Amino acid sequence: MSQKEKSLAHFQNLYLLAMADDKLEIEEKIFLTEITRKLGLSLEDVSPVIDNYKNLDMVIPETNEQRLHQLKDLVRMMVIDAQIHDDEYTICLRFAEKYGFSQGTLEGLIDQVIKEEKMN
Question: InterPro entries, alphabetically (predicted)?
């Protein structure tokens, strides 16, 4: 998988979580825009994901380090609007399990991200 494909997969996973409640909050849009820039992706690159997200599924990163990094970004996306919606949590847990992590690991990341957000 090329770096661009990995970046698109990362964006796709985040977008799937963001749309779990069928709406994109302003905080989620801002976060996705920042991630898109960091990943070096253009609107043209991510448009197919945005247009077809209902037909897409998660993409599992290749390495444990990539999976943990993406799971942390997914947790950031989940808590960005200061609420953890049940459907978002369920999807995040599904990602965690598919990535090989336990619910305890997910809970620890949630606590860590919330603490980091309070410090910023």
Answer: TerB-like
What is the Cα–Cα distance from 50 to 45, expressed in whole angstroms?
10
Token representation of residue 91: 């999807």
Burial of 10 (0-12, 13-18, 19+ CB in 10 A): buried
- HSE on the CB side for 81, CA within 13 Å? 17
Give the whole-angstrom CA distance, residue 77 versus residue 83. Answer: 10
For helices 64-79 and 103-119, give the axis angle rounded to 10 degrees.
Answer: 60
CA 103 remoteness from chain centre: 16
Q: pLDDT (tens digit, 9 = 90+) per residue, 78-107? A: 888 777 888 889 989 999 999 999 999 999
Q: Which CATH class is domain 3-119?
A: mainly alpha
- Domain residue ranges in the chain: 3-119
Q: pLDDT tens for residues 29-73? A: 999 999 999 999 999 999 999 999 999 999 999 999 999 999 999
